[in-house]
């Protein structure tokens, strides 16, 4: 497995090897030996249509979550934002395509908000997280927050967004 450190401290891109033969393919989806202090508590799945945006989500302490994200069907543009006010990278973001074709996986440590745009219909996304979901500590920030300076690849007015996500506060 190839692991690349990305431009945000602690965010890593995992590129598992794909083994092909006449029977089909095999790939390792997750090996916690490559992740320090990551103990899976829950695995979540979402299925989204093209142009659906989900995010930017995070959980507040003490229910912060690190996430390990991959796509089983379709493709997404995954966006990660540093929300640690004391970090030199505060409000900095990265965007990367994850798909069933490139088989990339993304590790997002605690202290980051996460969201994605589905770029294919029926994009099936999995998230392994290291803490349980808590509705009381569920949080997020508004995708239209201009202070984030996100270079959106499409007009964000064309995104399909839940009412909850449309009404999240600005950072």
Account of the 3D structure:
The protein has 171 residues and is mainly beta. The chain is 2% helix and 44% strand. It has a single domain, classed as Jelly Rolls, CATH 2.60.120.10. The chain has one helix spanning 163-166; strands spanning 2-5, 12-15, 18-21, 24-27, 42-48, 52-59, 67-73, 75-82, 93-99, 105-108, 112-118, 123-129, 138-140, 160-161. A 6-stranded antiparallel β-sheet has the order 1-2-10-7-12-5, with no helix packed on it.
Brief overview:
The chain is mainly beta and 171 residues long. 2% of the residues lie in helices and 44% in strands.
- CATH superfamily name? Jelly Rolls
CATH class: Mainly Beta
How do the strands of the widest beta sheet line up side by side? 1-2-10-7-12-5
Please give the share of residues in helix.
Answer: under 10%
- Count the E strands: 14
Compressed to H and E, one letter per element, the order equals: EEEEEEEEEEEEEEH
Largest sheet, in brief, is: 6 strands, antiparallel
Average pLDDT score: 96
**Taking Cα atoms only, what radius of gyration do you get, to the nearest Å?**
16 Å
SSE-based structural type:
mainly beta
